[in-house]
Design a protein that fits this description.
Blueprint lengths: L15 H6 L5 E10 L2 E11 L4 E5 L6 H9 L6 E6 L2 E2 L5 H6 L2 E4 L11 H7 L6 H11 L16 H14 L4 E5 L7 H16 L3 E5 L3 H7 L2 E6 L2 E7 L6 H8 L19
Parallel strand pairs: 3-8, 3-9, 6-7, 7-8
Antiparallel strand pairs: 1-2, 1-4, 4-5, 9-10
Length: 271
């Protein structure tokens, strides 16, 4: 079911002029293999995230989605292949170097400092911006944070912790955001709020890579979809062309009707 692509640089427009004027892809993972010790998780994976687009990466637990995100963010160096951000090869660049180039990683599990206050968490995200500007941006995105500035992040509700983690994608104004299971453990109302925030990021021209347990929500938002199956790309196509839920069941081992989440426990970890 893999869509055709001769290379990540294949012309997506019509004619040479369209190719010449198109910006470089926000992210390219080119023929990436990666793993942990002797355990290989990703096998020759190629993923292209065009500028100003939303790409969903789907797959069953253990398919390699989080490992792919770790390679993109710089936490895990691939054993082969390359990583490009806005056309720049960052395969050997550190996490903080990639962050300064415009990548923002929102990992599974909130990604906040629980022993620090909300204000301190926000200032750590600031990249030397003035405190007033940081707080204004964060509370514009999530007004409730303005009422929690002195509160320890670890004492926030799960939804508020996720808002605090997501605020980094607004405060730092990145060009690319990696989002790993941002709706995990949230109520339907909070999930709606999270997706409204993601639409705001999209409207600002930010590229998004979305791993999401609620497949229907991911498909509704994404421009392009990849499905990983045991570390290999099995589907690579425009979101509008993704097969019916019955076909996706084969790849995901779940039902996507009505936005049903994967059958595995919501607390399960993904390689």
């Amino acid at each position: 079911m893999t869509g055709t692509r001769s290379s990540p640089d294949q012309d997506r427009g019509s004619g040479e002029d369209a190719t010449a004027s198109a910006p470089p892809a926000a992210l390219v993972l080119q023929n990436v293999s990666a793993g942990y010790g002797r355990t290989q998780v990703l096998r020759d994976v190629t993923v292209v995230v065009p500028a100003h687009s939303v790409v969903a990466v789907l797959g069953a637990n253990g398919a390699g989605k989080t490992t792919m995100m770790r390679v993109a963010a710089g936490f895990l160096r691939p054993t082969s292949g390359s990583v490009l951000l806005d056309g720049v090869d960052v395969t050997t660049a550190s996490v903080h170097e990639r962050a300064r180039l415009g990548i923002c990683d929102i990992p599974e599990g909130r990604g906040v400092f629980p022993s620090l206050s909300v204000r301190e968490n926000l200032l750590l995200q600031s990249f030397h911006r003035q405190e007033a500007q940081v707080l204004a941006l964060a509370t514009e995105a999530f007004p409730i944070l303005g009422k929690r500035l002195k509160q320890l992040a670890g004492s926030l509700s799960g939804g508020e912790q996720q808002m605090l983690a997501l605020s980094r994608a607004y405060v730092t104004q990145p060009s690319l955001v990696l989002l790993d299971e941002v709706s995990l453990g949230l109520s339907p109302l909070l999930i709606d709020s999270v997706y409204m925030f993601l639409e705001t990021l999209r409207s600002r021209g930010t590229s998004l890579v979305l791993i999401e347990q609620y497949v229907k929500r991911a498909l509704e938002m994404a421009d392009h979809v990849y499905v990983l199956d045991r570390g290999v790309v099995s589907i690579d196509m425009a979101a509008a062309d993704v097969p019916s839920s019955e076909i996706l069941d084969v790849y995901l081992g779940q039902s996507v009707k009505g936005g049903v989440a994967p059958g595995n426990s919501s607390t399960a970890k993904h390689p």
